[in-house]
Design a protein that fits this description.
The structure holds two protein chains of two kinds.
Chain A lengths: L1 H12 L1 H5 L13 E6 L2 E6 L12 H11 L5 E3 L2 H4 L13 E3 H11 L2 H12 L2 H14 L22 H12 L2 H7 L3 E5 L5 E5 L11 E9 L3 E10 L2 E8 L4 H18 L10
Antiparallel strand pairs in A: 1-2, 1-9, 3-4, 5-6, 7-8, 8-9
Helix pairs in contact in A: 3-5, 3-6, 3-8, 5-6, 6-7
Chain B lengths: L12 H13 L21 E11 L9 E7 L15 E9 L2 E8 L5 E10 L2 E12 L2 E16 L2 H27 L17 H14 L3 H11 L1 H10 L4 H14 L3 H4 L5 H11 L13 H12 L21 H10 L5
Antiparallel strand pairs in B: 1-2, 1-7, 3-4, 4-5, 5-6, 6-7
Helix pairs in contact in B: 1-10, 2-10, 3-5, 4-5, 8-9
Classes of the chains: A alpha+beta, B alpha+beta.
Chain lengths: 276, 341
C-alpha cells in the first residue's frame, strides 16, 4: 500500500515530463526540466525556467558558501541537530569533530545531510541565517527562479530552483578549485579527530564511467524525483547536463553527454577557439 | 549561402596543411622542382639577391614573420618567369604593362585554389603580391603572399656556396618533415596540388599498406589512431586507395568477438554496439553495468537514446585523442627559416 502510494507520488512528481513532449523537445519524456550546455551555450533545454524541487542539488550553494567561509582544515563540531538530520546520512554523532573539507566531501559526494547541516551551522551558527545567505547569493548570481528554505535540499514550500539557475550555480561552484576537485572524485573519507573514519563513494556514478566526467551533484526526493547535474570535459569541450525529475537519469545523462560531444565535434570551430 | 565569417575562421589542421603546402610550393626546394621557384634560380655567374616573403592569412590573429634569405637568380630571366608555375595550375590573363606583370591562376586537383597576382620588376628589384583563395573540407582560406627582392651583387663562388648550403639544409629539413609526415600519416604533404613530399608517395603508401594490415586487429587500430589520429589515418587510407571502413570493420568484429568493449564503444563500431547493447546494457541499471562494458554501453545509450538533432555520430572518437603537435606546422616553421621566399 505504502509502496503503491510512493509510486503514484513519484509518477506525479514527473508529470511535467509529459508536458515537455513538445515538437521542439529533442529529449521528450527524459525529465521534468533539463538543460544541456556545450561550453557556455545552451544546446538543448526544456522547461529550463520552471521552478521545481532541486533536492540535494541545493548542496552546491551550501558548498559555495562553506568554501568561502571555512579553510579546509577548520574543524567542525557536529551539533545534536545536525547529527539527527534525516535522509541520507554519514552517521555522525553529536560532538564529533571533523575537518571542514572532509565534511564538504561527504555532503557533495555522499550527499550526507548530517555533514551538510553541520557545515551550515559552523558557518552561520544556525541554519536560518545560513539559508538567508544562500538566498542572498542566489540573488547576486541572478538566479531569479531559485529560493531556498533549507541548506540541504529537503522538500518544502518555497524551496525551488530552475534547471537554468542550477546550471549557473554549478558554474559558480566549479569556479572554486576546492569544490571542482572534490566533486570529480570517485570516493572520499572523513575522519573524526578521535580517529573514526567514514568512507563513502560518489553518488554520481558517471565519474569514472564516462570519459571526462568531472562530477557535479546528484539529488533525489519524493517530490523532486531523480536529479542530476553532470559535467564532462573532452579535448577542451565542456558539456553540462542538468536534469530535474529524470526517472532514468543515468542512461539519459549519458545519452545527452555523448550526443553533445558528437554535436560539438560536428560543428565548425568558433573563431578564436583554436590556436593558429 | 556562405557564412560571412567563414573567411575569418582560425585555422584548422587542414588549413595549416594547405598553407604549408603552398609555402613549400613557393620555396623552390619542394621535391627538387625548380619550376616552382619564383624566378628561375641561377647557375654559374648569376646575380645575388636579397629576397623576402611575407604571408598574410585573413583571420589569422597574429602576423606571420617575414622570411628573408639570399638566392642566386638567373641573370637573363624574363618578367614571366616570376609567375609561379605548378602542376595542375593554369595561368591565364597574363598582362604585361611596362615592368608590371599581372596574372590569374586556377589550380585543380586535390587542393584547388584560385589566385591573382602582380609583380613589378626592374633589373635590380622586384616586388609583388599574390592573393590565393581556396576551400578545403568546407573551410575557406584567403591568404596574400607578399614578396620582394633586391639585387645585392653578383653570385660569387662564396655566395653560391652559402646559397647551396642553405638549400641543402632546407632539403634536409624537408626530408625530416616528410619523414614525420609518413610517421603521422599526414596525406596532404604527399598528395595534391604542390604537395611538398610528392616524391615520397610510394613510401607513404607503403607505410599505409602496412598499417592497413595491422589495423585489422584492435590493438593495431588503436596504435595507429593513437599515433596519427583517426582523421589523418582515414585521409591517408583514402589517398593510398586503401579501404579504411573495411579495415575498421574487421577490427570491430574482432573486438566484439573478444569482448573488447572499450574498443567496440570507441565510436567506430556502431554496428557491433547496436548488436551488443541490447544484451549487455538495455534494461539494466546504469551503475550495475560492469565497468569493462561501460564504454560500449555509453555509446549504445548515445545511439539508442540520442536525439536525432544531435550531430551525426562520427566514425571515430576524435575527441578522445590527445592533442598532438601538428607535424606539418612544426616542420614548416623550421623550414621557413631557411627558405628564400
Amino acid at each position: 500500500m505504502i509502496r503503491g502510494a510512493l509510486l503514484v507520488a513519484a509518477a506525479l512528481a514527473t508529470l511535467p515530463a509529459a508536458s515537455a513532449r513538445a515538437a521542439d523537445d529533442p529529449w521528450p519524456g527524459v525529465a521534468a526540466a533539463y538543460v544541456v550546455r556545450i561550453d557556455d551555450a545552451t544546446r538543448w533545454a526544456a522547461h529550463a525556467s520552471a521552478r521545481l524541487r532541486p533536492a540535494s542539488l541545493t548542496k552546491l550553494m551550501t558548498a559555495v558558501l562553506v568554501v568561502e567561509a571555512l579553510a579546509p582544515g577548520d574543524v567542525v563540531v557536529v551539533s545534536r541537530r545536525a547529527a539527527a538530520a534525516e535522509g541520507v546520512r554519514l552517521g555522525l554523532r553529536a560532538g564529533m569533530k571533523v575537518q571542514a573539507e572532509q565534511l564538504l566531501a561527504a555532503a557533495l559526494l555522499r550527499s550526507a545531510n548530517d555533514a551538510c547541516l553541520a557545515l551550515a551551522e559552523r558557518v552561520a551558527g544556525r541554519e536560518a541565517p545560513f539559508v538567508a545567505a544562500m538566498n542572498a547569493r542566489a540573488a547576486a548570481l541572478g538566479l531569479a527562479d531559485t529560493h531556498f528554505t533549507n541548506a540541504c535540499g529537503f522538500d518544502a514550500p518555497g524551496h525551488h530552483a530552475s534547471a537554468q539557475d542550477l546550471a549557473v550555480l554549478a558554474d559558480a561552484a566549479l569556479a572554486l578549485p576546492r569544490l571542482a576537485a572534490i566533486v570529480a572524485r570517485e570516493s572520499g573519507e572523513a575522519t573524526t579527530t578521535s580517529g573514526r573514519t567514514f568512507r563513502f563513494d560518489n553518488t554520481n556514478v558517471l565519474v569514472g564511467r564516462v570519459e571526462g566526467a568531472r562530477g557535479v551533484k546528484t539529488g533525489w526526493t519524493l517530490a523532486a524525483g531523480r536529479c542530476l547535474i553532470a559535467l564532462a570535459e573532452r579535448g577542451g569541450t565542456r558539456v553540462m547536463v542538468v536534469l530535474l525529475g529524470a526517472p532514468d537519469r543515468w542512461w539519459d545523462a549519458v545519452a545527452m553527454i555523448e550526443s553533445a560531444f558528437d554535436e560539438a565535434r560536428a560543428r565548425p570551430a568558433p573563431r578564436g577557439s583554436r590556436p593558429p | 549561402m556562405r557564412n560571412p565569417l567563414s573567411l575569418h575562421r582560425p585555422f584548422s589542421r587542414g588549413i595549416l596543411a594547405l598553407v604549408a603546402v603552398h609555402a613549400f610550393a613557393c620555396s623552390g626546394i619542394a621535391g627538387g622542382q625548380p619550376a616552382r621557384q619564383l624566378f628561375i634560380a641561377g647557375t654559374g655567374p648569376d646575380e645575388l639577391w636579397d629576397v623576402t616573403m611575407r604571408m598574410e592569412i585573413v583571420g589569422m590573429p597574429m602576423a606571420m614573420p617575414a622570411q628573408t634569405s639570399q638566392v642566386c637568380l638567373k641573370k637573363d630571366r624574363k618578367p614571366d618567369d616570376a609567375i609561379p608555375r605548378q602542376d595542375d595550375c593554369r595561368v591565364s590573363d597574363v598582362k604585361a604593362t611596362g615592368n608590371k606583370v599581372a596574372y590569374k591562376m586556377i589550380c585543380t586537383g586535390r587542393n584547388p585554389m584560385t589566385g591573382e597576382g602582380e609583380i613589378t620588376s626592374s633589373p635590380t628589384a622586384y616586388e609583388g603580391r599574390m592573393r590565393i583563395r581556396s576551400t578545403k573540407k568546407g573551410e575557406e582560406m584567403d591568404m596574400v603572399q607578399n614578396f620582394k627582392g633586391q639585387k645585392v651583387g653578383v653570385c660569387t663562388d662564396q655566395s653560391q656556396r652559402v646559397v647551396a648550403a642553405q638549400k641543402a639544409e632546407g632539403e634536409a629539413m624537408l626530408a625530416r618533415t616528410c619523414s614525420d609526415g609518413i610517421e603521422k600519416l599526414y596525406a596532404p604533404m604527399f598528395f595534391g596540388q604542390g604537395a611538398a613530399c610528392a616524391t615520397q608517395q610510394k613510401a607513404f603508401c607503403d607505410r599505409v599498406g602496412g598499417h592497413a594490415r595491422d589495423m585489422r586487429e584492435p590493438a593495431g587500430w588503436r596504435n595507429v589512431v593513437a599515433n596519427a589520429g583517426a582523421e589523418s589515418a582515414r585521409a591517408a587510407f583514402d589517398a593510398c586507395r586503401q579501404d579504411f571502413a573495411a579495415t575498421t570493420k574487421a577490427a570491430c568484429s574482432k573486438a566484439a568477438a573478444t569482448r573488447d568493449w572499450a574498443f567496440v564503444g570507441n565510436g567506430s563500431c556502431d554496428e557491433e554496439t547496436l548488436a551488443a547493447g541490447p544484451v549487455h546494457c538495455k534494461g539494466r541499471d546504469y551503475y550495475t553495468v560492469d565497468r569493462s562494458v561501460v564504454p560500449m554501453c555509453n555509446r549504445y545509450a548515445r545511439l539508442a537514446r540520442g536525439t536525432s538533432t544531435a550531430g551525426a555520430a562520427p566514425a571515430q572518437s576524435a575527441a578522445s585523442e590527445p592533442a598532438k603537435q601538428d607535424p606539418v606546422k612544426s616542420g614548416v616553421d623550421a623550414v621557413r627559416k631557411l627558405l628564400p621566399f
